[in-house]
Each structure stands twice: as structure tokens, then as C-alpha cells.
User: Fold this.
Amino acid sequence: MTTTRKTPWLLILLLALVVVAGSSAGTYVYLSRVAKTGEAAKAEPAETKPQAPRLVNIAPMTVNLVNERDEPRLLYVGFALEVADDTTQAQLQQYMPQVRSQLLTLLSGQNSAQIITPQGKAALAERILHTLGQPLAPQQPAPAVLRVLYTDFIVQ
Assistant:
């Protein structure tokens, strides 16, 4: 008789152990998934963090401007060029004398009445982009200049 009384308790104890083991395994799987998604959520903002722009600063320059009334007018302008990659940045810094020469030539031919307007400044920026979009030396790729950002702009 004693063996029949032990059997139900043994089955209940075995069933309780199976339930505890199952719930422990389920908890472990759930927490490991939550931890993985938490790590992914923490890593995701770091990956989508915006990158600082690559800029090449052009020292301010002063040029004579064209005028309808043949009055002497001056343009004092400084700007930074936003470039696409480190290669373009290094290339522009290496060829800075050529870049400044091209810019001085372009700027000296501008009409003072046109460039003092916001539309004139935007058109001048487009002309600068077009001019600097040409290769600086034979067998060199064209620089990838994205934008012209004015830092100084005075017409006198």
C-alpha cells in the first residue's frame, strides 16, 4: 500500500518540475530576445547619427567688379566648400592655388548690381559649383563639391 500512495506524489512532483523548467526556459528565451532588441535599438541611433559635413575653407578674397557706370566696386568674399568625401577634400587642399585662381577669375567678371541680390548670390554659387566641377589637373577626377557656403560677402 505504501507504494501506491507514493506514486501520486511522485507524479505531482515530476509534473511540478516540468512546469518550473518550462517556465524558466520560456523566461530565458523571452529575456534574451528583449535584450537583443534593446541592443539593436541602442545601436540603431548610433548608426543613423548624422555625419558632420566635410568643409574646405577658402580664405577671403577681394576682387574688382564690373559696373554699368564704370565706377570702382569691390567684392570681399569668403566661403567654405562642402565636399562629398575625404578624397575631394584632400584634392582641393592640394590644388588650392589653382582653385583660388579659378575663383578670382570667375568673381572678377561679375556684375555688382546682380550679385547683391539673393538670386544673384545663388546664381554665383551655381557658377562656382560649375567651375569647380572641372578636373583640377590632367588625369584627375572632377572634385565632388556639393555646396558653396558664404562666410563673408561685402560689395562696396
